[in-house]
Amino acid sequence: MDIKLFRLAFLLMASQLLAICASGQIYMTKTGQTSFFSETPLENISAVNQHVAVLLNSANGEIAVRMQHRAFSFPNKLMQEHYNENYMETEKYPAASFTGKISEPIDYGRDGTYPVSAEGVLDIHGVKQKRVLKGQLVVDHGQCTLDCEFGVRLSDHNIQVPTLVLAKIAESISVKNKFVLTGKKNP
Amino acid sequence: MLKTTSVLFFSLIASVAMAQTDLMKELEQADDSTVHYAAATFKGTRIINGHSIETVGKNNMDFIISHRFGAINSGAGNFFGLDESQIRLALEYGLTDRLMVGIGRSSYQKTIDIFVKYRLLRQSSGLRNVPVSVTLFASDAHNASTSTPDLPFYTITQRQTYTFQALVARKFNEKLSLQLTPTVMHRNLAEKPLDANNVYALGMGGRYKLTKRTSFNAEYWYTPKRIGNTTQRDPQYTNTLSLGFDIETGGHVFQLHLTNSRGMIEKQFLGQTTGKWSNGDIFYGFNVARTFSFDKSKKRSNSNGY
Hints:
heterodimer; A: alpha+beta; 2 helices; 51% strand; elongated; B: 3 helices; 10% helix
């Protein structure tokens, strides 16, 4: 009897989810790409993270992005170590995140390219900043590709650079994101 | 019927709740599905005299300059030891992120040492839980000093001393890392009559971070006086205790320390330490490590003194 009930419940939940999907769907990826660049006359530093997790709720435009600092790979191990140990204090603040809402109404059912902006909270190094991030959303056969570029000022997030290497690290780091989101199958 | 209704009701609530689930919470839950490796258990490839579990990164080379000045108790005439020093110069190269080779030369007994270090196990949490990091170490020290009546060498083989270590370390938290180093050393020629050819020792070391870029390090090498009925070393030799600080500045690691050993390689600090802290036979010393990167594919960011 119980098993039957569970089955019934499961079917019901599944159908309800389908209903939700029809009106608004969760898009997601676990392999989003975020890279950053620091450019100074003395030295360029870059790193890329291929394991960025992103969830986008098309019903209300809510978006959440989360990445582990440890997953950023650098051209050399020492840079990576310093990034985690000295600058981001990864042990204390393991992840960076953004939670916000896409302001523009988007028709996810129709293919096209939409300029978008998302208002929300950028959390890096334990310091939360209210930001409006601008980007581009491409809808193509049920797949959303989100591109976004923005700058992060180190001082905004209390990331301290010792005077000795001040000339080698840019005051503002440019961050590039490319997230290919697909409809979520098992929410 | 009531049951059915309640199940229906709860499933409805569940699905509604699901739609409103905090997106961020869902992402946070996904964190457990990745492996987090403990990084930077130590700042350098040495704790003080002995090796740490760390290796140099792939295609990176460390140039290490080490000095041990004279004894602090040698008096003002010797400028408390600063008038003289033992030197070791070394190059260490990372073949992969886990395998490292190195070569060094110590001024004491004109010794050339070569070694290989392999990171067997990396401490990790998350999806894969490994409590400690383990690195294997093997070295050969070649005593290139001239043969004398006091210390005669008849063959090249006699000049070699081999050391094997299993370095086991755990980074307990951001600040504290501890390491145990079981060691076997084989000397082809025991230089003193009471010295055994095989020496068994245990290294104990650790670091405590004081700031993001500095740490306090301590290291003690314990060699039992006897193993079974065999005396391990001539009684004039002592165990090595070292205390020091690591200071990191970009591509450099400065290690400043006080130690009762003037030797900077296993053969010397395990088997040939004569100083005693209680007598004031303390030597001030430093290691300076500079990292160079030889990654050709990333030419533009090839320096790393950022």
